[in-house]
Amino acid sequence: MAAVLLCVLALALAVFALTRRRLLWGVIGVGAHSLVLAGLYLVLAAPDVALTEAAVGFGLVTFVYLLALRRTGKLVVAASPLYPLLYPEGEGIAGLEWEILTRFARWYHRDLELIWVPRAEIPRLLRSGEAHLGAGGFLPTPEDRLAYTKPLLPTRLVLVRLGEGPRGAVAGEPTGKHADPSGKLFEDAAELAHALARGEVGEAVTDLLRLREWTMQDLFSEAETQILPEEYGFALAVTPQDEELHRSLTEFLAELEKSGELTELLRRYLG
Amino acid sequence: MEALSGLSLAVVLAALGLWVMVSRRNLVWKLLGLGVASGGSILFLVALSHRPGVRPPILGLGPGPAADPLPQALVLTAIVIRFATLALALALVILLTEHRHTQDARRLEEEE
Amino acid sequence: MKFLLVCGLAGLLGLLGAGLVGIWPRPEFPDPDPVAKAWGVANAVAAVVLGVRLWDTIFEVLVYVVAMVGVRFFLLGMRWQGELPPVAETPLLRRSADLLLGPILVFALYLAASGHLGPGGGFPAGAILGSALLLLALAKGVERLSAELYEPRLERLEYVAVVFLLFLGAVVLVLGVRTAAAFVVANLLVAVEVAIGAWAVLHRFASARGEV
Fold it and tell me: Is the pTM of this model over 0.80?
């Protein structure tokens, strides 16, 4: 009777372990499975085998797996800052996307490394494989030829008009194509905002979230805004060289959404 | 009864491990599947050495016939060797990840 | 391909069922007790592992050594460059490691020395010794422990143990010596071998990959 119970338990643990997506659960499940198998050997009148299986299969094997899982490479994130998605805070980094990325890195058994780059640099870094993920208010454009996740947050483009002058935009963003031929392209949004405040450009194309940031900083009070009709969404960009990474990230985000944690995070960071 | 359930579990475990080895693409998952499959074969041998009402093959552990010590002895070393080969395989996986930056078996084959 | 796999498994299951239903009678075992008595021990499994099939065991130990050499070779060029991580403040774990380490070591030695009388033997004893080091590593931090305790001399001891085991095998099998003392020595050698091999592997993995 005990043998049947142990058999059922061992089978259930093996099925549980091998149907997980996360490797850590698989390793822990297989460890527990082999401990139950050791009990089964004891019932089957093989105490020597039971002792060996308990010491090796449960102890050493699990430990070697955990050591090997710990660091299997770094995950490099190329990003440009955007409050409240991804921004430097004191010595560290904070934001909604950073929270998602750190959770994903733990899930995927990688270390995160973040490099701040101008928006126009991100596609080149991802295509060459120097970085694995692009983040920080990344608006997907077809010409980048990258892989993207589902949009985390929908947004629209906005035309901000402050006075007379050329139209400015951030290089590389889909907002760039709204810049007229005489307009100026800037490396990042902060430069664009300063140019707008100083009057170097008369109007700027940006997105709703940046507009909110600018309004909160009270950079310019009496600006005239016009929302453009195209719909966009902030997403995470993935290097086209790693399909497995893309699939894992998509799955992780789906899991996060299903458990309701994504909604919780969105509410925490965006109010 | 014990031997019957042990033998059927052994076959199911071997099948499960083989299925994982075929269907998963990540090398570490393949190794986990291999571990479960080899656990199944070990259980098969141990269950073969069992008959109803036997005692462990140690002198002075009560009356009755003893279980067959030969499969148990074979399995004893196999478990330790399994750990050694697993460590070797994981070292190779770490080396591959360092040099090729992926653990996906299909991608590793394509890049050849 | 999948169809063939399923068919093969179904066939295997059918054979298994037929065998268990009793169409073919299952053969009776020979009585293991005379074998154990002939080698002068109580545990028939030990009599098979270290007596009747001693050559098998010696060559399995050689396979183990070769695999460990392989791990060392492949992880040779990878050394963790960063700083040692700070030791986590877990007094419970550290106190229990201090308390448990001695009993575990004694238990492992007992298993190795009494492997010919009851369940145990060199293989589980070596694995338990390795697990004791694991416990210590969890309490102190793997990186730190492997930096403090690792010695190339230990690895040489492993090879010396293998040589002694081969020598013992020759004495037992060629000269036909059948004493329980040979079993005790062989079990202790196997335990040393397995434990040092496991510790060397854990050390290599830790120093190549960073802390747990």
Answer: no
